[in-house]
UniProtKB/TrEMBL annotation:
Annotated source species: Streptomyces fuscichromogenes
Membership in a protein family: Belongs to the NtaA/SnaA/DszA monooxygenase family.
Domain (Luciferase-like): residue spans on this chain: 32-383
Protein name, per record: Monooxygenase
Gene Ontology molecular function: monooxygenase activity; oxidoreductase activity, acting on paired donors, with incorporation or reduction of molecular oxygen
Keywords carried by this UniProt record: Flavoprotein, FMN, Monooxygenase, Oxidoreductase
InterPro entries cross-referenced by the UniProt entry: Diverse_substr_monoxygenases, Luciferase-like_dom, Luciferase-like_sf, NTA_MOA
Residues annotated for FMN binding in this entry: D58, T95, Y149, S220
Pfam families cross-referenced by the UniProt entry: Bac_luciferase (PF00296)
Length: 446
């Protein structure tokens, strides 16, 4: 078939949300999250399997209740720059906050990764989920939703403007004419907006793919709108097949409403496959994984993250869920609102809400290789995703998927059998953005 599935890899290290006990697994090195060789091996294995990208998440606030991986991990762009020198084709997508960075600095860092990797960089734009981050940057309070998303939109616009500082032919490097730079192809930005004032130009040329690929993970109305306006890749929440279909259709519809080609935004759902020799063995292992991570202390900490790392320890576990709706606005508003609404409607206690926050929910991608491949094919045909962002507990689990499921997808014509491009944009089927100044000159000369 003409449409092909895109696959990305999201390494867990010693265990993130939903994988709190992973560090106890004897197959996991206790320093995996800060071991660059762990990430290089993961990236090379994914590249060998022809994956599109390696995806690195990040946050900048912790307390002692956070998952093990969050407590001690490498900064994404530093990590990905190291991985870039040990890979050739796989995309390198790093998370960075538009709330707690400056556009010039971050644009330069991502452009540098883009050059180091030969055009394989991607930026996952986040507005920062953890309210406590503000205190690490000299602010008393986390910015509200409207401000954060308004800032994010302007931030991306500024970054893209800076990435267009040089036109593609700006450096003739002509010794005979004593001309290294054509000054007519260098452009200041001179941006003055609501949140930023940036003169430019950026002191780095465009890469082989023009600009880094913009990713986003929009769930709220503001997040979905931002994604439809600027994103080229989206990390979607997943859920049931019907929920994934609704999200997919909504984002594609919003994208078209902004005058963009819906094919130029690739939606990745989260996938945590469990592959085993038989369906029964895989289902049994999935349940075991859940039980390994299921305890009240962990569930309360997980619940608290939706409310700005709120400590529920001061509340009576068997009393009605506390009235803390005011904390949702500057935390994970969408998830927090859903928690509060359900607690009120069903008159749940704090203990019951904490338990329900970590209810056992079967992944659709569990079973023998043939079963998992069948499900992937069915979901793809149903219009739920363009790609899957895959997370595996161990390197052995990644190998089981690569050796068992990927060949079946290839045999069915659903996944590539070789890389068709050297850049992330090329492998995702995204266009190289024309430099805005080159485009304006061409229009003026028509």
């Amino acid at each position: 078939m003409s449409r092909k599935i895109h696959l990305a890899l999201h390494p867990y290290g010693v265990g993130g949300p939903g994988q709190h006990g992973l560090w106890k697994d004897p197959r996991i090195a206790k320093d995996a999250s800060i071991d660059i060789n762990y990430y290089i091996r993961q990236a090379q294995a994914a590249e060998h399997a022809l994956f599109d990208a390696l995806f690195i998440v990040d946050s900048q606030f912790i307390n002692a209740t956070y998952p093990a991986h969050y407590l001690n991990r490498l900064e994404p762009l530093t990590l990905l720059s190291a991985v870039a020198t040990h890979t050739r084709h796989i995309g390198l997508v790093g998370t960075a906050s538009s709330t707690y960075n400056s556009p010039f600095n971050l644009a330069r860092r991502f452009a540098s990764l883009d050059h180091i990797s030969g055009g394989r960089a991607g930026w996952n734009v986040v507005t920062s989920f953890d309210t406590g981050t503000s205190r690490n940057y000299g602010l008393d309070e986390h910015l509200d939703y409207a401000t954060r998303y308004g800032r994010a939109l302007e931030f991306v616009e500024v970054a893209r403007g800076l990435w267009d500082s040089y036109e593609d032919d700006a450096f003739p490097a002509d010794v005979v004419r004593d001309l290294f730079l054509d000054p007519a192809r260098l452009h200041e930005l001179n941006h003055v907006g609501e949140h930023f004032k940036v003169a430019g130009p950026l002191n780095l040329s465009r890469s082989a793919q023009g600009q880094p690929v913009i990713f986003q993970a929009g769930v709220s109305e503001e997040g979905r709108d931002l994604a439809a306006r600027v994103a080229e890749g989206i990390y979607a929440p997943g859920g049931s097949l019907e929920q994934a279909q609704d999200y997919y259709a909504d984002i594609k519809r919003r994208t078209a409403a902004y005058g963009r080609d819906p094919e130029h935004i690739k939606i990745f759902i989260h996938g945590g496959p469990v592959v085993a020799a038989t369906d029964e063995a895989a289902l049994r292992r999935e349940r075991e994984i859940f039980e390994e991570d299921n305890d009240l202390v962990r569930n309360l900490a997980l619940l608290g993250r939706s409310f700005g790392a709120y400590d529920f320890g001061a509340h009576d576990l068997d009393a009605p869920f506390p009235d803390i709706a005011h904390l949702a606005e500057k935390g994970g508003r969408t998830s927090a609102a859903g928690i509060i609404e359900r607690a009120r409607a069903e008159k749940l206690t704090l203990r019951q809400v904490a338990a329900s926050a970590n209810e056992f929910r079967r992944s659709p991608f569990v079973g023998a290789p043939e079963t998992v491949a069948d499900t992937v094919e069915r979901w793809f045909a149903a219009g739920t995703f363009d790609g899957i962002n895959l997370a595996f507990r161990t390197e052995e689990d990644l190998e089981l998927f690569v050796d068992g499921v990927v060949p079946l997808l290839q045999k069915r014509g659903l996944f590539r059998t070789e890389y068709t491009a050297d850049t992330l944009r090329g492998n995702l089927g995204l266009p190289v953005p024309v430099n805005r100044h080159t485009r304006e000159r061409a229009l003026a000369n028509d």
